[in-house]
Amino acid sequence: MGYTIAIAGKGGTGKTTLAALLVRIIKEKKLGSLLAVDADPNSNLGQFLGAESKENIGGIIDDIAAHPAKVPAGMPKDRFIEYQIQSAIEEREGFDILTMGRPEGPGCYCYANNVLRNIISKMIKNYDYIIIDNEAGLEHLSRRTTRAADVLLIVSDGSAAGLRTAGRIYGLVRELNIKTVKNFLIVNRSEGLPRELLEGVEYLGSIPQDAEIQQISSDGLSLMDLNNDSIAFNSLRSIGEKIWR
Fold first, then answer.
1. How many CB atoms lie under 10 A from the CB of residue 83?
2. Domain ranges in the chain?
3. What's the rounded Cα separation, in Å, for the pair 77 and 70?
4. Rounded to the nearest 5°, which phi and psi values hold at 199?
5. pLDDT exceeds 90 at position 18
6. Cα-to-chain-centroid distance, residue 34
7. Residue 57's pLDDT band (boundaries 50, 70, 90)?
8. pLDDT higher than threshold 90 for residue 176
9. Best CA proximity match to 194, nearest among 164, 170, 214, 222
10. Is 109 exposed, middle or buried (0-12, 13-18, 19+ CB in 10 A)?
11. Cα→Cα distances 22→78, 130, 224, 239, Å
């Protein structure tokens, strides 16, 4: 059974950056097979990994909805969608990536989430690690895109608003009975202790501002090309041991 790390947080806190860096760490540590899931409709994880997918779940669902004759006779639509999504997984050296995308058809967003949830529940048996970069905010939790995780990694910046959102995320996780084994808070682009800690969530540490990461992001380049002496990357490596098994 795969070890699932779900990443959540307010928009703009750098959760996708940290998701990409975690993929790189797992790859470099050779901890096992790895699936990166970009579950944010505003898909950026592939770009940060230098592995943008040619297809995504939203596009596949839209295409089948517009062309139902593509479904082979005698094959249930859900099974055909699952086959198409399996084919859409982008395979790279050291990791695979699956992208949610944004469905364009009216009223199909919840269906796309249901498809993603069912696919992930099956795929976790095929990988040692699964990293899920969730949509910013709270809505993805209320839709229960993520039903369970070995690690819930809540990312905040040092602002009061970011920490409040982090607290609300954890509160909703408890309210919806989403099963998480370890719950961590990382404060990104900050140094020192945050203004407040979250009850029930272990403070893992802070990641300092990193000009090199800012430049790479601005240029639309891959964090796989980030120098090994990056202060943010080394900081995450040093505090990240508790995240693994």
1. 13
2. 3-243
3. 10
4. -65, 130
5. yes
6. 12
7. confident
8. no
9. 164
10. middle
11. 32, 11, 11, 11
Q: How far apart are CA 180 and CA 146, in angstroms?
A: 10
Give the Cα separation of 155 and 239 in Å (integer). 14
Q: Which amino acid is at 77?
A: K
pLDDT at 59: 86
Superfamily of the domain at 3-243: P-loop containing nucleotide triphosphate hydrolases (3.40.50.300)
In sequence order, the 6+-apart residues with CB closer than 8 A to the CB of 194 are: 156, 158, 163, 185, 187, 203, 206
Contact 123, 88 (CB under 8 A): no
Structure-token match 């695979």, residue found = 96
Among 106, 110, 163, 124, smallest CA distance to 37 is for 124
101 half-sphere exposure, CB direction, 13 A CA radius:
25
CA distance 14 to 207: 10
What 8-state DSSP symbol labels residue 242? G
Longest dimension (CA), the chain: 60
Burial of residue 191 (CB within 10 Å: 0-12, 13-18, 19+) is: exposed
Report the candidate in 50, 43, 48, 34 with the shortest Cα–Cα distance to residue 99.
43
Q: Are strands 3-9 and 148-156 parallel, antiparallel or unpaired?
A: parallel
25 exposure class (CB count in 10 Å sphere: 0-12, 13-18, 19+): middle
Which residue is listed with tokens 């943008």? 52
Distance CA 102, CA 108 (A): 10
Q: Name the residue among 121, 112, 130 with its Cα closest to residue 65.
A: 112
The answer on pLDDT for 136 being more than 90 is no
Helices (H) and strands (E) in the chain, counts: 9, 8
